[in-house]
Design a protein that fits this description.
Length: about 280
Amino acid sequence: MHNDSNGGSNNAREREQQLDADLELLRRERNQIIAAADAPRSSLLRGLHAVMKKRLQLAADHRDLQLANLHAAFVLELQQATNELQRDKRALRARMLAHATERRRRLYRIRGANAARRRRRGRGAPAERGAALLCAARMGGLGSFAGALERQGVLRVALTPDEVSADLGVLLDSVDVANRGCAGRETDALGDGSGAASDRIHSSKGTLHYRDVSFEKGDQVTVFTAAADGKRSSSVLGVLMSVNAREIHVRAQDGTHHRVAVAQLRTGKLALKRAQ
């Protein structure tokens, strides 16, 4: 029996060894199979990686080229815009110079025309003209005085301070000869129906020129009738709403509207003055 037990143990060990050998053989076969399957796959992956790296490099080169083109286009547009700006500046400078030259020529023409007018009218005309401007200054302040100068044609061009001072000096010197007040001048002119007085009443470009005094839209005015003895009656105080070649439109303080024909002012049937 002892021999039988030893024989059984040997058979068990041999069987275990055989199983271990078979397991090792299976492992080797599995590894061989996996290695054989991975070999073509690994080469394919290496090829794909190479293609990907090449495409990434091409994309980077394309991006750099686009950025360079955009920068060059920006520099070109900036240069074109700078050239256009310089060209516009030169054209504007030329127009400004031509405009200033034309205004200077107008100034010389106005000065020549004023000198000829003074020679025709004699010494009394400049004094009367200066008195009218000084009247506007007294009634409306320096702003109205400057507006009266511009409407009379003295400040229609850009003058230097020295030229303005010289012109104003001439006007004030001539005013000293006249030395008449605004109220007295208006009263004396009311009953004057001569042709010279009617020529001094006209409208142009929305401005009414009435006996050397200019009226514009928004001015406070008084419209009244003048009797033969110089007395005033039926006065209407209001705001000048509009001026055209045929009539003026005045809105009274009570809200009523009055239309005054320029012909009535010329004939002396109606008179006009600034509201006090």
